[in-house]
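Weekly structure sync - notes
Attendees: PM, LS, DV (DV joined late)
Agenda: review two folding runs queued last week.

Item 1: First target. Sequence and structure tokens pasted below for the record.
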Amino acid sequence: MNEEKKNGAVDERPTEKQRGPVVLRRDRKDELTTTDQRLLDSRGPSDWVHTDPWRVLRIQAEFVEGFGALAEVPSAVTVFGSARTGRDHPEYQIGRDLGAALAEAGFAAITGGGPGAMEAVNRGCSEAGGFSIGLGIELPFEQGLNPWVDLGVNFRYFFVRKTMFIKYSQAFICLPGGFGTLDELFEALTLVQTKKVTKFPVVLFGTSYWQGLYDWIQNSVLEGGKVGEKDLALLHLTDDIDDAVRVVKDAHKAWGDAH
């Protein structure tokens, strides 16, 4: 895999796979399943049941490792977006500009640590002198943390990683993305709606991409009585980086004033 260094040079790295904190490269990376899959898939031999207590310790260790690594992180914003966004796509440049704007506003930028839009945000933040964080996940088809992550933590379990996104962020900004982005978006909205977290803005960046989803929530979910007006108000739709950062700053200030 070719990876750009920050100085523009090209760095040759072998393809790799993350297995929690472990990096597997070359012929060692070919494993057919992930830890999450082995935990959640009920099919297979019955001896799986007898390994669960040991796996609980591994899950506990992931929480401890994540809490320890991120405990000193300053105020941060998590940005989600597609791993498939190419470096020549306009959304990649938007990600870089957004990462830089967050750094200039005094926020660390947290992403899933992968390629595409995540890399763009990490890159923009790091190049602007900010604190660029990547929380990676063991997947069968994605390769390691991108080279612009300053602090990286790799996880085996999605639910542990999701806890870290929420616990150490003051806001979510969603760039155009796929199922993973949608998953994090609705989980964040559910946690805010049920008051598990407070003063937590969720910004949808890119009206041409998100407007259809927003309209569906408004015209079908809200009109059908499945959510209320204040639930819809949890979402902020914008195409302007300064506006997105303003929403984050205002919410962070309100949270600080309340505490």
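Item 2: Second target, run right after the first with the same settings.
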Amino acid sequence: MFKRKAIFPGTFDPFTIGHLSLVERGLQLVDEIVIAIGVNPNKKTFFSPEQRLETISKLFEQNPQVSVQFYDSLTVDFAEKVGARFILRGIRSVNDFEYEKNIADVNRKISGIETFVLFTEPEHTHISSSIVRELLAYGKNVDDWVPIVSSNSGGEEF
């Protein structure tokens, strides 16, 4: 049986409920999603790739359709490496669409890989990693907050 597999590259933030929703909706389009954590030693990030891998893996440990891996190559090269024929991308506004459309066109021409561009649901657009930065600034243990963020389907602010 042919499996439709997609990657969700680099942008997945375990503390952004909109990204969780994108993966759930993406699974309605494909059979399997690989969340790809970009590893770039020159890029400063708030959490190490290892911390992101651990946290994201915990969120999806009960879902065999979702896996998490590091990648340090072009997105299309990584997609080919893991056997994915699709890329899943999320956008928050119409302004983001033109950029993502251009990238999708390039990826299609280079490798034949198609891109699903999904809008983040409106009720999720305000929940972002800025919440995590604020929690850390106040000395909170972020791991205690992950279940709250990931189950916050109504978009309430805390």
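Discussion on item 2: Residues 146-158 have pLDDT under 50 and may be disordered.
Action: LS to circulate a short write-up before next sync.
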